[in-house]
Amino acid sequence: MSRTALINIDTQQSFFHRDYWQETDFAAFQQAISTLIAGCEARGVPVVDIFHVADSGPFALESGFVAPMPFLKHQAAVTFHKHVHNAFTDTGLDHWLRSRDINHLIICGIRTEQCCETTARVASDLGYRVTFVSEATLTFPMTHKGVTLDCNALRHRTETVLEGRFAAIKTVHEILEL
């Protein structure tokens, strides 16, 4: 895993202050992402924290909520702020990775079908080998045209569109067995 980095996307306190926040899957997410981060750190894989920043509200730097969720205890190798859904546009992430000869990215964080999936797609298009660890991602139900997709449906949809096209889908256990 020497040419690998763990990309931890938007696991930030800002989400606690959104109206859609819910605790339903949070305990399982905490366990999975904590195990993944600790396992990567033990293997010398750098952990890159990405935080979403907006001009106002709980994602604004001035809010004080653009900070790691309290359960996270790792020391990030580097932290980047993003203003769009993917972690590459105007952040310096691509340069940081390439200057360290990193060619494999493990994706985890919040929200499964938004910033995590978008980052996986862009990373693949940029030539990185991508592994998506959906059990170490978190999302919330979404409704469109009267149809609500629950978290499991959103996760399944993301896995379906990524697998074999943009990323390999692995569990925390599978990643740490490599």
TrEMBL record:
A GO term, aspect molecular function: hydrolase activity
Keyword Membrane: no
Chain ranges of the Isochorismatase-like domain: 4-161
UniProt-listed InterPro entries: Isochorismatase-like_dom, Isochorismatase-like_hydrls, Isochorismatase-like_sf
Keyword Hydrolase belongs to the record: yes
UniProt keyword terms in alphabetical order: Hydrolase
PANTHER family reported in the protein's UniProt record: ISOCHORISMATASE-LIKE DOMAIN-CONTAINING PROTEIN, PEROXYUREIDOACRYLATE/UREIDOACRYLATE AMIDOHYDROLASE-RELATED
Protein name: Hydrolase
Species lineage: Bacteria, Pseudomonadati, Pseudomonadota, Gammaproteobacteria, Enterobacterales
